[in-house]
Structure formats: structure tokens, C-alpha cells
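Format notes (please read before filing issues)

Several people have asked whether sequences and C-alpha cells are stored in separate files. They are not. Every record keeps both together, in the order shown below: the sequence lines, then the C-alpha cell lines. Line labels are part of the format and must not be stripped during preprocessing.
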Amino acid sequence: MRKIGLIAIDLDGTLLSSENNMRISERNVKALEKALGKGIKVAIITGRNYLSAKNVLENSGSDALKRVPLSLQNGSILVEGSTNKILKGYDLKKDVALAIMKDMKNNGVDIMVYDSIKRGISIFVEDKPYNRAIEIYLKNRIEIINHAKTVVKVKNLFNTIRFNPIQLATIDTEEKVDNLVEIITRKYNGVVKVQKTVSYLDDGSWWWFEVFNKSCSKSRGLKDICSIFNLSLEESAYIGDNYNDIEAMEVAGMSIAVDNAPEDIKRICDYVVASNNENGVAEAIEMILERNV
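Then the structure lines:
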């Protein structure tokens, strides 16, 4: 195995603790800065959008971390950290998005539509009550990101979507999400990427259902980042915790799970480190630095 030249890290449930999902711990920050100081590239690969992920890096207090590249919304967008320039973008065609939105509505779930690649700021939702998980999610976005257009409430989503969105999503029970995964995968196989992941909102009983461009995944994000740094996948390490991390774990030269990851994810990884609440990322980086000597 070659020396590791790139460390790519998931945010929620991995780099960020369960107690504070907007600030990186001091130990993790120091470990990341040490890796950067040794010439190892660092990148964030997350399901979050630009404003949410960038806020985390801004809150780190580290100038070096503010400049690392960001692969956002599960590989949909690649942003150059120091200039904020969009290097890659993969969206959903409007007509496909509207058809899937109709299926989501017919199956009794609420719909969140994420802005176009060019703007990439807003989530569009209908102005009505939502389940507890979505209410928490939207409230957190408005309060934490503190941007007037973070959440845009409209009368009718179907009349509002006149652009190619980055992503469609809902948060609901596992039963409803499983049903949607089956329906959308069957109807749009090869047209879109469908994803189910655990939600960390509320009491942990909720699940994310997300739809992306068929090219999108965290492995796509990892490949794009390796490309801009002229590194092979074999020279990359990926640290994650959730089901949307699996594809990146499978292609990375080194796969690392934090201890709070589900057992089936830990089983496929090369290494398991401490949990997200116990600075597992710092432990992983220290291991990589020792191995690279």
C-alpha cells in the first residue's frame, strides 16, 4: 500500500460530535492541521450543502481548514476551498425531478427541493406543518446558517421548480423510506441515484431518503478530489460512519470507520477508530501519520 496523500472525511457522525454538529473539536482540528503541515491533502466529503459545510470550517478557527476542498451533497458539487469556485457539478433534470416529486407526494411524504448548482443556497419547501424531524432540520438550518434564503417556503412546490435541482429529499420513518426506495429505484433505475441513510435528528428513529443525479456518490466526490490533486485512489484514506460512505470506503486505498458506525459498515473497513464523540478522526490521522513515516 502506498503512502496516504489525501485524507477525506465525512462530517456528521464522523468529524463532528453528536453534541455539537457545527464545530470541530480542538483535538480534531490540531490533528488535521498536523496532517496538512506534513503535506497530506485534506478534503471534506459530506451530504451537507455549501453554506452548512462551509460554516463548520469557518467555525474551526483554522485558516488552513477554511481552504480545503468540499465535495457536497454526496458528490453533487465539488468546491475549491480557497476560492469557493465550483469545479464539478451534477444535477437532476427538471422534468425527472418533477416526476419523482409526484411519486413522493403520492406516497405521503413531505418534499424538500435543493437549489440549482449555480446558486446552491436554498431548500424549497411548501408552507405547511411537517413531521418533527423535518421541522428540526429546517429550524436548525435557519438558525445555525443564519442566511435569509436558506429555507424558502412556497405555496406550491410544483409551480416553483423551474430549474434543475441538485437534490430531492425527505426525512421520515424507515418503513416509508424503504417503500420510496423500492418505488423510485424500480421506476427510475439508471436515471437517478437513490439513497437511504440514518438521520441523527431527534430521537434517532428517522431516516433520510435522497435522490441525486445518477453520477453522484461519495465515491464520485473522492475520485474528483483525487483528480484535482493528481493522486490515485490508492493514495487516499476515507473516514466515515454511515451508509452513504460505503462507496467511498470501497474505492479508497484505506477505509476507516468511527466506532459509532453500524456494525456492518465497520466490518468492511480496514480500521475502526474511536467514536465521533471521542475524537476518532484525530486517532485515525495519528495512525496515518505514523504509517506514512
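For reference, the curators noted about this record: The radius of gyration is 18 Å. DSSP finds ten helices and 14 strands in the chain.
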